[in-house]
Fold each of these.
Amino acid sequence: MKVAQTQIAETPVARASQPRADGTNGAAFKQALDAEITLRKGEEAVPVEGHAYSEITKGAREGMYINTSGNVRHGEAFVLVRRDGKEYHIYGSGKDRLVVGFHTPKPGDAAAGKAPAPGTSGLDLRKGEKAEPVEGHAYAEITSGAREGMYVNTSGNSRHGEVFVLVRKHGVEYHIYGSGPDREVVALSERDDR
């Protein structure tokens, strides 16, 4: 698998000027994230239920989407493509293009329909494994069993229940799912606890 370094471009997000949301109030945090997104003149956007993005419904970029996840691409516009059971978010164009792939849930999957509440209940762990939630994060650490030291996604998104390796480097948290040609690397910005 070819892995290219992603570039963090200037985005239309005014994080520094916005007050920080109280970390204990999920609704306030979500509202603060949504408030940071700046649309272009004449644009309107509506949140897409069950996803961390909004669809641009009016303006020059109508039909594109805005990332509202709070990760390193928060506030950036992308084109959404669904193909072969995956969802692709395509940011930029030409040599600056970044394609991020996601598994889409199959009918009947835990991630389909209602998203499960974050936590360790309902996870399909292997025999002898135990998991403990990691405070302030949407994942749990596997504390016993063959995969001890790995983490399991509890976010309720399309990767809910999937196991990953966690790597922190230069202020970025990387979640590495799978291996070989099926490997997916998801980069998340680490939040400071001010």
Amino acid sequence: MRVTTANCETIRGLPPGPALPPLVQSLNWLYRPIPWMHSLSARYGDYVTVRAPGHAPMVFVSDPEAIQQVFAASADELHAGEGNAILLPLVGPSSLLLLDGSRHRRERKLLMPPFHGERMQAYADVMRQVTDQVAASWRARSKVTLLEQFQRITLDIILRAVFGLNEGAAMNDFRDLMRQTLQSVIRPAALLLVRGDGTMRGKSLLRLLGPFTPWNRFEALKAKVDARLYSEIRARRQQPIGGVDILSLLLSACDEKGKLMGDHELRDEMMTLVVAGHETTAVSLTWVVYLLLANPDALARARAELGKVVGNRAVTARDVPQLEYLDACIKESMRLQPVLPLVARVVRGGPYRLGPYELPEGTAITPCIYLTHRRPDLWSEPARFRPERFLDAKPPPHHFFPFGGGLRRCIGMAFAQFEMKIVLAQLLRRDMKLPNNYQGRMRRRGVTFAIEDGLPVAVA
């Protein structure tokens, strides 16, 4: 039965949820998340408590009024950084994603300038050049797997726009090392090793097993990445201030007390930008192309707009605001197939009233992006790909939130959307075809929801 917030007495404690053992619930969440979410919603409604070993109780929420409340809550009541602790082994303790309170405000203020709209336009040439270089390699091939190609594109854009690296042996080595490191943590089982506070289970046993476990291979790769990052940071500190890449800008950024970011802070933020800006954007691009190829009318309209705005020349930063239908296609794809299924906040400072429930301190509140984006009371024909809905109206931020919401909305949102338009504008004019009777099915890749086989397409 669905519980609404109107005229409800306070219910002290957690909402109802499945009685399955926490490990069984975790396995459902990791290996069959879509049917699991639908079954929870059908049985328990807009509020449901789920459990996982080593984690605080998690309340999945798909009530838009409650989500609006969560996004408007103060940072003292709900801790978003604590809700992202599962990323600690990869991004590090100084990552913007993991910080709360004054440290988060300071770090976000330092990171904001490189993502300003005018600054981002300087990266348009890099985005287009990288896309063209990768697409040029398709000439000798009849088929490509698009997720792999988009991973190449987004990682190279990160290495050039964020780190300021150029083509050469150093970039090639760093690219390969970073790719291996990121690929080593996409297995869903890896998430079972991380507790809710970001610490590892069975560290002593993992050490005894040596290099033969996937996690220890990840640790070895991460150590090499760290050495490379710290070496780059130290070398750049010795150079004159300048450069338009994000690392150069952050090296000279200081807070209101005149304090610069330390090496450890820079390392963690660089890893955060790689993690947040590589895999998620590549997966998003794959879903957009799949949905356009599966909907020929929408593809034809997107190509007609590209022909009108861009013509036969290369896309530029000035073209991007005019690509309104392409923007709608990207947003509709993120509504229908969000790359991340939820965001998280942890209750601190005492009990917290959410809808009819008074939740105890330590509870993780997780607004569910996937379920909210498919509510029939918010979206007509929610299972259909209809980009026009984003031309007709702008949905409220608690109805549509693929990048999270409130003060913790993804700092790289504008960069990612700008990048996707540049990449798609260059590639959608090419001839690409899906295999016969192809259905794009979801598969979890670590924390992201991607197309199962990476989207194989015929190219010409």
Amino acid sequence: MLRNLKLIFIHGVSAQNSNYSAGLFELILRIARQRLLAQGHTAAAITQMLDATVSHEVLWVNFTTDLTNRYLQLAYPTTPLFWGKLTKPLDPLMIQIMEYIKDKGDKGSGVENILAGVDDQFRRIFSYKDIGADPAPHEGHNAIIVAHSLGSVIAFDYLMGFRKDHALPHTVKLPSFITMGSPIPLFITAMGHPDSDLTLPPNVGRWVNIHSPRDGIGRPLQPFFRNIPIADHLVRTKFTPIAAHSAYWRNAATAHIIADQVLDALDG
């Protein structure tokens, strides 16, 4: 049984601050505790098991803040009227997506600010300098990544190692890679690979994808990957496409799916 499991959250588009995943993490632990109680585990044993699960967050949106703020100053110099109030929240999302595409494709300069910044944060998490209350540092290379929206694209690029200078080391073991509301099929199709022959790296156990039927951005993933058995889970979040896309962070069905993966990893 693992005595150390990092649950690493990567947010999607929009402005995100620290603790954006705190509510989902607490819900995951609550569900896991209920399941372990139902299985007959003692309260002390459950506490010991779940104390082994430590939450970390990756923030990347700060790399797009200056560009986004300058755009909004130019596009909305005054308080927007009715239609502007609808479009203004969407503009930063599109900027972040296009900035990442530009950043990812700029091979000549070697800048890759977003992916490099994500890599720096992962290196800090696995350096044992930022492990917080991790009870067993020597087991600190076991993790589950939970990535939402554009964050899932960034995580996908990172763990697949498309940029060798900014790639997840194979010494890190991922029992599960979990995506929520993921637009990865849109990105790989735009790159010319709607039918992907990729396989999972040897350090990744399984890929679990969570999507909502009304999500305007998230997609099922299995049809696009011939050689990866992806477990697509359908959950119902909100009614409108944008609300449905952001509601995974507060969705009980999503937390149940992630709790399953956490308990499987701890048992492993």
Amino acid sequence: MTLIAAGLAFGGTVSSERVTLLRVPDGGIQPQVAVDARGVVHLLYFRGDAAGGDLYYVRSSDGATFSRAIRVNSQRGSAVAIGNIRGGHLALGRNGRVHVAWNGSIAAEPRGPNRAPPMLYTLLDDRGDGFEAQRNLVQSAYGLDGGGTVAADSVGNVYVFWHAPAPGTNGEAERRVWVARSSNNGKTFERERTAFNEPTGACGCCGMAAFADSKGNLYALYRSAHEMVHRDIYLLFSRDHGVSFSGADVSPWNVGFCVMSLAAIAEGPKQVEAAWETERQVYFAPIDPATGKSGTPVAAPGKAQDRRYPALAINSRGETLLAWTEGMGWKKGGSVAWQVFDANGRPEGERGEAPGVPVWSLVAAFARPDGRFAIMY
């Protein structure tokens, strides 16, 4: 079944047999979604000036109506949306605690050497009706450009990732992936350290994805910049709560410029999957949680038309929703498209598209308890 939706205003919905499209509340952009063990949907989004706006958090018990919005960042204007890839990321930790990390805007404090921007973090307070004061987690690895991210597990480990040059160096080839780790559910963090020591570089204006699965395994995706032209997707994997990582090149791409890409990771009842973009096409692949090895990538079907910013959701039957944007560009909105795959990775479910993804925005996806999917944009 193919669905083409049109005329969806802010706050509206379009529903089909398998997939519901939801607008981000309050005209927000760059949605990030997580669903807890009780089925509560947690949503993070951005509002305001793209160069210096605010992050907001809402939640929903039915996946359709949302609570009153809570501002996440304690310093107004300290979040950024320009470039699509530098905004907020959301993770659920022990007892469902909400953790948020984001690249600081040009106005965000505290600054680093030469006014370098901070990597900011906060968590939902004990009452659940506000966020603690934001904190900068960078102690030495300054040089943010592309987006950082956050992951958390059920036993209290929280991980904030970003990429930046090794201190005293510069250039994309000298960039490293850094991780700051907390073992007490975000109360305190260790000093950042490199997650992977291979000299892959990191694509300066590309984002990352990180995820901790139900077994405590930790995954991270980033784009390299080895010799400036090898802008491959690397998968990092840790079975010891971020103490050590293995790494593998899962998607080569030789191109001599920064592609401003994003990636996604999701878990289902029996599998973990990762999604990324390569050469204007989006892909997803299973990851073996015992070894951290990725399987054969599956491309979104049909002719690729500048497909970007993939999002993933896996339902209780092991079916996968892959969603992405088409036609997005600098200061340019686009459309959302999606495909439902069966539990064997075959594109035998619903396929659709809809216009109206705003400038600087993204799409997010989640699975409902009844097996249906929702896409937010």
